[in-house]
Amino acid sequence: MKVGIAISSYKSDDDVIALVEKIDLESWPVDGVLIVDSFGSGKLNDYCSNSNINNLQYINFDINLGSAGNLKKRLILSAENEWDFVLALNHDALVEKETFLQLLKYRHIPNIGALYPLKYFPSKNFYDYSGTREIGPWRSFGQTSPKKNQLIPCIWSSSNGALYNIEPIKNGVTPNSDLWMGWEDYLYGLDLKKSGYIQFLVSNAVCEDSYEFTEKKIGFANVVLSSKPDWYHYYRTRNLWLICWNYHPSFMRFIRIFIRTIFESVLICFGWKEYSRRNSLKLQRQGFYDAWSFKTGKKELK
Known about the structure:
This protein is of the alpha/beta class. The strands form two sheets. Strands 1, 2, 3, 4, 5, 6, 7, 8, 9 and 10 form a ten-stranded mixed beta sheet that branches. A two-stranded antiparallel ribbon has the order 11-12. It is built from nine helices and twelve strands. The relative contact order is 0.13. It has helices at 13-25, 43-50, 66-80, 97-104, 167-170, 184-194, 232-247, 251-271, 274-292, and strands at 3-9, 33-38, 56-61, 85-89, 112-121, 126-128, 141-142, 151-153, 163-165, 198-208, 213-218, 221-226. Helix content is 38%, strand content 23%.
């Protein structure tokens, strides 16, 4: 059973080179490493051309694939490499070798679509179980000490660190690149589930995530908000509503995403500075309208 690693890159040459050298130095048990880039500077191409690492591939595209398009390309190219499984990594890979080994233990499960590491946020001392539930206004945080050797059924999780079965790709179940950025992992998880594949969080495969959080005081309470640029609100809103209305329509999904949208609007109003607040609300509203018009791909945002 062949296993590869597929790394996404976009203006992250040095991080990707450091990651590849770490994988080689630590002798991760893989049959090859693939790097998929957009608008490459030439540095990665030169590095891979002159490297002595076996089965190291570099492919550059003269278009910005976006996170969704890059994931789709990596999985399709992994199928062309005749790999059976592939570990998908971003340039800021979360997983260590031991995490990878823990994921590999369960690759023989019948009808497996993906195996995901369990994220731990050290700054907040919690584990992220969000993907075990449908999207809503909540994040789902688990116990501080998860059980050993536990497989936790889930709907989706981040592709950064996911071990994907390539069988669904060969059967035409691929990530949707139309989303361009944001929630493509959720959509692919729903597609895998609909096609009869199962997915698990692996409790022994823990990885630390330094996700950007900012603590804001709202009234008498301190609320922890994700700290992202304003334009994230556009893609968050648009892509969730595209999934709800066009790709996987469901009344309950509609209700959950509606509540989430209202909840995020309230947090924007109370959580951010005046200029950012106005701009974020405008981008959120634009994302909602564009989803209604079924506009996908990259959007030029001001």
